[in-house]
Amino acid sequence: MVVRIRLARPPGHTKSTTQLHLVAVNARKARDAKPLEVLGVYDPVPRLVHDGAVQKKMEWSVERIRYWLGVGAQPSKPVVRLLSMARLIPPDAKYKGISLASSTTSPSSVSAAAPLRA
Q: Fewer CB atoms near the end CB (10 Å): N or C, the chain?
């Protein structure tokens, strides 16, 4: 069974909902199928924060993401991009076969907001 880390809509939400879950799921399952585990939340729409900056919401369980990568889960292309922005994997990581040896982030969970790219 190949496990993939990818983005999925939360159950019961419509197309207009912008919030996405980062999930570990069997690769053959549909996008909105029941995941093996929910690893975090990602909101791609930039929001204003308290200091007037515009940021995107990313809340992930870093240790669970590392666990799934360590047991051979393959991240999807958008997830590779997000994980490299959060410095959980090297920026030049390939689509498959990501090694955790060069990962340097140590907190157990990330509650960071990515800056808006122009």
A: C
Tell me the CA distances in angstroms from 25 to 36, 48, 50, one per residue in order.
5, 32, 35
Beta bridge partners of 115: 55
Going across the sheet that includes 74-75, the strands are 74-75, 3-8, 20-26, 37-48, 54-60, 110-115
| DSSP bridge partners of 114 | 56
Give the SS3 label for residue 110.
strand
What letter represents residue 56's amino acid? K
pLDDT tens digits for range 76-86: 999 999 999 88
- Residue 118 corresponds to which tokens in the numbers above? 């122009």
Check whether 8 has a pLDDT greater than 80.
Answer: yes
